[in-house]
Amino acid sequence: DLDECAASPCKDHQYCLNTDGSFSCKACDASCVGCTGEGPKKCKTCASGYVKEDEKCTDIDECNLPEKVCVKENQDCVNTSGSYKCVCSEGFEDKDGTCIQT
Q1: What is the C-alpha separation between 21 and 90, in angstroms, rounded?
Q2: Does the pTM exceed 0.70?
Q3: Which of 34, 36, 60, 85 has the greatest count of CB atoms below 10 A from its CB?
């Protein structure tokens, strides 16, 4: 078997998997920018919104940072994978970018 992966045939956001007589390109984990294999432990560098923790890229919980990310009145922070979103608190709704009581 010829190791086609030695020639790095895959794109930057993929890793090469050598198979018998061939190869396949697999997508890197969402937490990676470039990778050497499957999963968040094989990242070359962590994607935006992720930090290297215990040898793997882990989501940053922006909602638990010391500096508040959702600063408008009656707004709550919801952590998402690699990011966050600001939503109106319960009993409030978004009217032109302001959370007003429903």
Answers
A1: 58
A2: yes
A3: 60
Render pLDDT for 34-76 as a digit per residue (tens, 0 to 9). 999 999 999 999 999 999 999 999 999 999 999 999 999 999 9
Q: Which residue has the tokens 């009217």?
A: 95
Would you say the C-alpha torsion 38, 33, 80, 52 has a positive or negative sign? positive
CB atoms within 10 A of CB 14: 15
Assigned CATH topology for domain 4-59:
2.10.220
pLDDT at 1 over 90: no
Amino acid identity at 19: T
Quick one: which of 14, 18, 17 has its CA closest to 1? Answer: 18
Query: Coil, strand, or helix at residue 66?
Result: coil
Every domain of the chain and the residues it spans: 4-59, 62-94
Question: What are the φ and ψ backbone dihedral angles of 97, each rounded to 5 degrees?
Answer: 85, 5
Q: Which residue has the tokens 């968040």?
A: 40
